[in-house]
Amino acid sequence: MAQAQIRRWRPGELVFAGGTAAQGIFWLARGALRLATDDGGEARLVAVVTAPALAGDPAPLFGRPAALLAATSITACHTAFWPYHRFTTMLAQRPGLALLLAQQGMQSYHQTLGRVTGLLWPCARLRILHVLVTLAQAFPAPGGGGSRLPAALTQRAIGLAANTSRVSVNRVLADLRRQGIVGRTRPLHVRDTARLEALLQAEVLAAGEEAAGC
Predict the structure, then answer these.
(1) What is the pLDDT of residues 124-173, one digit of tens each?
(2) 3-class DSSP state for residue 193?
């Protein structure tokens, strides 16, 4: 971290842009990011990344153009940043770090695949439940069993992460409160993450091929 630029981001700030604007690799030490297309058209959600994780496109390290993806902070975020040339030098000097990052990148890839699958569901309720599960896992409450999400994760922020409206998020949360899965206090308190995960899995199975009709 000694060679990295450390920065803190407020909710809603652009952390990095993609394409020719890409400048280096980020380590997300705290918080959650929204990755969306950055091709000049309507932004489309690609993934929600939660700490700890690598962010920033490594493609330029291998002579390839960076993806057209932009990252926006959903919550307050802490990042470490290395310009591509400095990151390349660091990897050459520390081969063990390269192996560690490759392993972490592989894990992040598989996690992102699962998150992308969830975020592409045409049913808004399933996408909201998927985002809530992702965030509850990222911000566990002390002692386990539940989660207290950061105050910055408002219904609007959750809707942004799920590519849907605040009204839809409000409707889902109202149903979860009736089931006793989330509390009525703010910031949002997920009382039982395991029950939330089980509900999502059950609804995905129940929707099946009919998910597009939600």
Answers:
(1) 899 899 889 888 887 888 877 789 888 878 898 888 778 789 999 999 99
(2) helix
Q: DSSP label at 12?
A: T
**Helix H segments across the chain?**
84-93, 95-119, 124-138, 155-161, 166-178, 193-207
Count CA atoms within 13 Å of residue 105 on its CB side. 13
Token pair recorded at residue 199: 């509900």
Encode pLDDT of 12-36 as tens digits.
899 988 766 678 888 899 988 888 7
- The tokens for 148 are 């207290």
Helix (H, G, I), strand (E, B) or coil at 17: coil
DSSP 87-122: HHHHHHH-HHHHHHHHHHHHHHHHHHHHHHHHHT-S
- Cis amide bond preceding 52, omega within 30: yes
How are strands ordered across the β-sheet holding 14-16? 14-16, 69-73, 32-37, 45-50
Residue 105 has pLDDT above 80, yes or no: no
What DSSP designation does 65 have? P
> Is the distance from CB of 189 to CB of 182 less than 8 angstroms?
yes
